[in-house]
Amino acid sequence: MNVEAWPKAAADVLPLMGNEAIARGAWEAGVKVAAAYPGTPSTEILESLSQYPASDLYAEWSTNEKVALDVVIGAALSGVRAIACMKHVGLNVASDSLMSMSYIGAHAGLVLIVCDDPGIHSSQNEQDTRLFARFAGVPVLEPSDAQEAYEFTRLAFDLSEQFDTPVIVRSTTRLSHTRSVVRVGDRVAPPSKGFVNAPGKTVTIPANARRLHPKLIEREAKLAAWFETSPLTRWEKGDKTFGIVTGSTSYLYVKEIAPHASILKLGMAYPLPEGALRTFAASVDRLLVVEELEPALEAQIRALGLHAEGKAFFPRAGELSPELVRAGLAAAGLAEAPPAPVSIGIEPMARPPVLCAGCPHTGAFFALRGLEARVAGDIGCYTLAAVEPLRSIDTTICMGASIGNAVGMAAAGEKKPIVATIGDSTFLHSGIPPLINAVYNKANITVVILDNSITAMTGGQDHPGTGRGLRGDPAPKADYEAICRAVGVSWVRRVDPYDVGHMYQTLREAVVHKGVSVVISERPCVLDPVKIKGNPLAVSQERCVACQSCMNLGCPALIWSDALHEGRHKVAIDAAACIGCTLCAQVCPTDCIQPTVLA
Amino acid sequence: MSAAPNIETAPSTVAAARATNVMVVGVGGQGVLMISKALALIGQKQGLQVKQSEVHGMAKRGGVVFSHVRFGAEVWSPTICKGEADVLIALEWAEGLRWLEYLRPDTGVFIADTRRIVPPFACRSRRRGATMAYARETPAEVIDKVSEGYALDAAAIATGLGEPRAANTVLLGVLSASMGVPVAEWLAVLEMLVPPKSRAINHKAFEAGRAWAEAAHDDASLRFDAGITGDVTHADMAEVSVRLDINAAWCKGCDICVKLCPERCLALNDHQVAYLKAPQACTGCHVCEWLCPDFAIEVHTTHQVSMTVSE
Predict the structure, then answer these.
(1) pTM (two decimals)
(2) Distance, CA of B10 to CA of B7 (rounded, Å)
């Protein structure tokens, strides 16, 4: 909120968003190196860390999550505390490094913040990081609110050093984006431990790895023993007829709905404290587990031979809520059935997210739709072009998938022209190896790099193609055309997507080129880093014939006017929203859309 | 394995007063977060626990934005259950209607700006006689359905004061009348949120909103502007049939009509001659007729006057 007010004295009380609380915890723990790739809902963590003095810590936007984790691994092995932040699917990208680092350990404190997105507010899936932690043999802490997010992050660094392990702190959208009051402390930066100097440990050749794996298994047992009596395990005694094992924001929902229940609140989802669980289970008549997404706790508790009930009553998909906890307890016969919601008889209007007025992607995808190609899409704002009226994307799998998907489509004998669309930040994240692959394997595809000079979807973060670093400092700028030519693409064109005709013509030329062709669509995002607002256009109501060609752009500045032509609505432009990109004027057959201010 | 977890006896939530729940809703870019921040600060200044929860990500893209603000002696869940919002404040009319089920049916207060932000989605149908897919309910109808409702054109009040951008502060003034917190505290919070140079106008906007609410509280007939209606243009519903004549001899298959038909209902056949592939999608807009360089297309529209025959 008020950034200048942050680094204040100990025991200060600040209203912090979960992500800001995590950043505060890391800063107080003396973190020296921080790295991340933006991804909702994790983005604000590194942004908050970058608000602390550069003399306290080095922070960077990395090109992807694996690079971010590799950077912090390098730092931790060199003796300073380090943190990497990512969204849940970012951990998939970083997982190769995590799986090896779990064998190696940590040396100086090494913490990963992974933010899950239950309910899929802004992601492509809702995978549960707790299962990943179990897979990697890495402890995972689960804070429930901003205060705990702050405390657990601080603690994670100590745990990492004490048990020589990377530690994951798992947040969720609801925690990351909820603001509440946090009692904070002071920064205590431990001195550097110096380089680890233990090649038997840090070089994972088979001979070393074979020795390290049993150590990981021993570490798991030690962590579980520590967890038995740690402050992370809290037994709240209450009604003995049933006991609830829970953690994360699920704990808050349980407290809201069943304040008198016996609760075993777990601050760590892996490994679990067997003794505490057995004692708790023995103290209550029925044992329930309330957790969001996968039955991660439930499965481990059942494996102990305890009769735990959970997913029979609480959903495995989607975000949990107090309502769902109430309904689940009612289904278990432990609470009164919730009152039926009172319907007010008003059907809510659909308001799907749309590309902004003047978004450069609109021009690119409008032209692409005319091409009637098979289009492999990627992750970014432009995924919105998958729906009407632009409807020009056939697939979206995950970050960086488009170019590889296109190669496969071509290999499968698809008859339509094959196009991959990928944003600038995504291209740098994971689009370059597949482009090299396409060239090497002589694929007949067209790649459209949608260069809006920002990571737009997550709110406008810099990347290696923007010419600025995390703290706004000047940085070298990646040259997409040079990259394409360097890997062997001979046919590269740069086009302004605000020129629809040129864009369409270029795409037509690109798809008839044999081999890999690349079209770089260049126009900055209209929101970031600066909000662009030009003089708006207006529709001449006399000349508009209500053909609604312009409505095929899906521009939010275009709405129906009250005037009709042959029974159909003419179009009007919302002057406040219109930025004057002229795309609508270019597609208007009667030339009735004109600037309001003529030069 | 001996276990000694940290044991707490059940906390005394019994006597704790229930939290106050306020939902702030609107469309991306409207300032939902400013109002919820003001509420969170008000709660904090009362020495209460506060939780303010929102979902980022789609907010900038004209999507639905909502924020849950809860404060009280003890607040657990960051989200509000359906039917438990004490106040629902909407910065946009249709968004207010979307979340009505969250309002307490017996005591909930509904405050809505009558401002309409029409999404492109509402203007999708191309058929003759199609109406905008925007909420049809009038303020009069909606206020009849809630326990206590207020609908106002906050932008008009703010514009009257000379600053259209202060509309949210007007709404904050209206909201303050339902919250039982001294005016001085609201003004102090407002000062924290607005830049110094616009403090005076925001102060005036707040007072104007509060005055409007106080008048409306005493006189229910002032709670909405009766002049505001569903405001849907009812188009000529006459049946129209469209016939496309394409002269195959003149068509050279240039593809212009196919590419530029707004409904994308034309295609080229095996002989590279344009034909109407999807007749049901054709709206008879004439674009193909005008753009054909070879005058090969004629669009005929016939209004069919429906007749009522009495028995």
Answers:
(1) 0.92
(2) 9
